[in-house]
Amino acid sequence: MTVQSAPLVDIRQLEKRFDLSGSFLEQLQFRNGRFTRHQEYVHAINGVDLQVHRGEALCVVGESGCGKSTVARTIMGLLTPSGGEVHYDGERIDQLNGREVLPYRRKMQMIFQNPYASLNPRMTIQQTLEEPVCFHHPAWSKAEVRDQVQDVMQSVGIDPDWGVRYAHEFSGGQRQRISIARALAVDPEFIVADEPISALDVSIQAQVLNLLMDAQESRGLTYLFITHDLAVVEHFGTRVAVMYLGTVCELADTKTLFASPRHPYTQALLSAIPRLEDDRPNHIRLHGEVSTPVNLPSGCVFHERCPYANERCKQEVPRLIGSDTGGQVACHAVQEGRL
Amino acid sequence: MALLEVNNLDVRFAVRGGDLQALQSISFSLDKGERLGLVGESGAGKSVAAFSILKLIAQPGYIAGGEVLFEGRNLSAMSERELRQIRGNRIAMIFQDPMMTLNPVLTVGTQMVEALKAHRRISTRAARDIALKKLQKVSIPSPDKRLDQYPHELSGGMRQRVIIAIALLLDPDIIIADEPTTALDVTIQAEIMALLLALCEQDNVALMLITHDLGLVSQVTQRMLVMYSGRIIEQGPTKEIINDAQHPYTQGLINALPQMGEPGRRLYQIPGSMPSLSRIPPGCPFHPRCPFVTDECRQTMPEYVQSGNVDVACYEVSKLIEQENRAPEVTP
Amino acid sequence: MTTATVSRWDRFRESFLWYSFKRDKIAIVSFVVFVAIVLAGVFAPLFAPADPYDLAQINIMNSELPPVWMAGGDAQFPLGTDAQGRDLLSTILYGTRVSLLIGFGAVLMQGALGILFGLLAGYLGGRVDAVLMRIADVQLSFSTLMVAIIVGAVFKASFGNLMFGEIAIYMLIVIIGIAEWPQIARTVRASVLAEKKKEYVDAAKVMGFGTNRIMFRHILPNTLSPIFVISTVQIANAIISEAALSFLGLGMPETQPSLGSLIKSGFDYIQSGSWWITLIPGLVLVVLVLVINLLGDWLRDMMNPRLYKG
After folding, report:
1. At CB < 8 Å, which residues of chain B contact A?
2. Is residue A243 included in any domain, yes or no?
3. ipTM value
4. What does pLDDT average to in each consecutive run of 10 residues of chain A (339 residues)?
5. How many CB atoms sit inside 10 A of residue B181's CB?
6. CB–CB of C164/C155 below 8 Å?
7. Count of domains in chain A?
C-alpha cells in the first residue's frame, strides 16, 4: 500500500452542530426585563480531519456521544455538515444536488448498527436486494438483476431460496448478512460500517467480522469502521482514530496504537477493556464523567478528566501533531514531553 | 451448606402450541461471598435463571420442577409474603437498565427511604442516614445532593451507582447482577465493575454476575456457568474454563473473541446460530453447530462428566476422559 | 404464481391475527353480523321483496301498516310499511346500502387526503408540517356537523331540491371526507415520525432513492396497520354523521332514503303509534355501528404493539 497516494475519502475540518433550541418563538426568553434570543447547540463534531486510503480499514473508536456516528453519517450525506468539506476521490461531494450525487451513492455504501431496524419489514429479501440494483442500473434486464442479487446473496452466505421471506423471519446475524448484501449489491468501493456487530451475540460477531474481511479481500473494499469496541479494532483495523467529544485525539497504525498509546484518553480506554487473562479490573482511573457536547470544555476537551492536565490544557486547544511513534496525537503533555 | 442451592430447576413458557422449555434441569450452588458468573448468548436462559430464583418469572413463564434452596429453605414452597422478606432484603438484584429499578417520578432519597422502611421498623431520619452512607460507599460525588435529585438528572454511570447503593441498602447476602454494565461505556463499565467487586469483597457478599462478556467474567468471578439453549453445558472455576475450556461451544466462544485472533486474519467462527426456544433440536442442543457431532449427540443429552474441577456435558469430552483413564492399561 | 398465493394464505392462517380472531367470540360474532349486513346491503335488489325507488310499486293505501306479528299486519310487508306505503324491509335494505356506500366512500376520501397530507407533514417536517397540521387543527375545531350543515345548506340552495337529490350521495361523501381527514392525517404523521427514524429509511437514502419513492414505497406500507384500525372506527363515524345529517334534513332525500332519513321520516309518526318506521331502521343503524366499533376495538388490541408484547 502506498500511503503517499491521494486518499479515497478526505474530510477536512468537518464540523456538525445540532440546534437544540427549537423554533424562533421557543428561542425567545424574557430575562431582566428584556427579550433575548437564546440558542443552544450540541457540538457533535468540532473540526475533524481524516483521510481514508484505498484498501485500508480505518477504525474510528470512542465512547457514546463522541461524534463517531455523526462523522459516518455526515460522510454518507445523511447529515449536512455545519462546516468543513468532504472529498471523495478528489471531488468535493458535500454540496452536490440530488442528481449529481447519484454516482457516489453507488460507490459509497453503509452498513447499520441495528439489524432489526435496518431492513424494511414490509419487503421480502428479494425485493430489498433487487430495488437498489434496478435503481442504479435501469438498463439491466430482469435476468441480469436476478443474477447480480443471487451472486451477492451467495457471497454473504445466504441461500438465494430465502429471498421470498421477510426480514422478521431471520435471526440478527442473518439480518446483518442481508444488510451487508444490500450494501454490496451495487458494487461499492467504499463502505461505512456504523457499529455493525455491536448488536450481535459473541459467536455471531466473529461470523460477521469474517464476512466483512472476506468481502474486503475479494472486492478490494475500503472501510470506515465505527465502533466502541477496541478489541475488534485491534483485530480489524489498518489504522485507528480515537475520538473524544467531537475531536480526534489520536490517530495511528493499529499496531503502533495498541503497542504504545500516547494520548492519556487512549491509554485509559485501552486499560478498560476486560481481557481474558486479567484477574481483576486494572483500569486507569479517570475522574468524572464525559462532559456534555452542549457546553464544551475550553481548551483540550479531555482536560477535566485528564490526570496530566495543566493550565495550558485548560486554555489552548491541542492540535493533532505527528509523534515520535509515527502516529498523530493531540495532547499538550505529549508534545511538551511531560508524558 | 451452600448459601444458595438450585436443584434441577425446570422453567417453561406456556405458549400456543405447547410449552417451551426455557430452563432444563439447572443445578448450581453459590457459597457465602462467592462470585459466580453466568455466561451465554442472548436467549440462552441466563436472565430467566436469575428471575426464576426469586420466583419473579413473569407470565407465561412458570417453574415446572426443581427447587431453589436459600440457607436450606425452599424458596419455591414459600408464600409471596415470605418471599418478599427475602427479595431485596437478603437477595438484591441489579438490572441492565437502571430505569427498571428507579421510579422516574420519585427522588433517589425517597425511593431509598421507602425501600428501607418496607423491610425495617425505622424512622425516616434514620433511613435517610443509612441511604446517605450507602451513597457515600459507592463513591458518588456530593451524595447529600443526589438524595434530592430525580433519576433523570443523573448520568448513566451515576444511575448505575445509585442502583448499586440501593442493592446494598439492606445489607444483602447475595447480589444478582443482570448485565449491569452492558449499557455503559467501556471506561465507566470498568469503574462500576471495580466498585461492585470491591464492595462484595468488603462485606463478603455473594455475587451472581450475568453477562455475555467473557472478559468481565474472567476479571470478576471465581466460578462460572456456561449456558446454551436453557441448559448448563459447562461449570467450574473461571480460570480453568477460560484457560482450558472443555465444551466445544465454550471453546468456540472463547476462540471467536477478536482478542484471541491474529490481527488481520479470519477469526475462529462457530457456524450457525443458537436455536430459538421453539426449535431446540433433540439430544445435545449444540449438536447442529458442533464439529465433533456423533449420532449419540443427536439423540440424547449427555450427562455431566468431570474433567479436572470442571463439569461438562459433552460426549466428546467424556470419550477423551475415558481414553485417558484407559491409556495406562494399554501401555504397560 | 399459485405457490405465492397459497403461501400467503398459509401465512395468514398461521398468523397471530387469525389465531386471536378464532379465540375471540365477540370478534367472530361482530364479523359475521357485519358481513351479513354488508351482503344484505350490496345485494339489496336480490333480497328485497319490493323496489322502494319504483314509484309504480307503491300504493298509498298501504301506508303505516304494522309488522306481520302485530294485529293488522300484512304478510306482503314483513316489517310493515312507512308513511308512503313502501315496504319497510326493502327500504331498510336499500337504505343500508346507501349508508354503507357513504360510510366507505367518505373513509376512502379521508384516507386519500389523510395519508397524503400525513406523509408529507411527517416526512418533510419543518414548514410543510407546521402549515398542514395547523390547517388540520383549524378543521378539527369545527364540528363535522357544522361544516356539513353549512356546505349542505349552500349546495341545497344553489342546486335546488331536485338536482340536490341526484348529487346528494356524492356530496355527503365529500363533506364527511373533508371534515374528518385530519384524524387520519394525524395518525399517519405520528407513525411516519416513528418510522423515519429507523435505519431502513437511512439505508434507502444512502442508496440514493428519491423522496417520493422513500415516502410511498418504504414508509407508507409500514404505517398501514394504524390506518387500518382508525379507518374501521371512521367508517362507523361516517355512517353516524350521515344519519345525523339526514335526520336534520340535510342528507339523503326521502326518495332515496338512507338509514338516517328513514329514521327521520318515521319520527313524525311515532306519536301516532307507528313506532316501527323509526325504531326498526334505528335498530339496524345501532347494530351496524356497534359491530364496526367492536371490530375496530379488536383490531386495535391486535395491532397495538404494546399490548401485543405484554
Report:
1. 41-42, 155, 157-158, 185-191, 193-194, 197, 212-216, 218-220, 242, 252-254, 256-261, 263-264, 266-271, 273-274, 276
2. no
3. 0.86
4. 72 90 74 78 90 94 89 93 92 87 92 90 92 93 93 91 87 92 94 91 90 93 92 90 93 92 92 84 79 84 89 91 88 87
5. 25
6. yes
7. 2
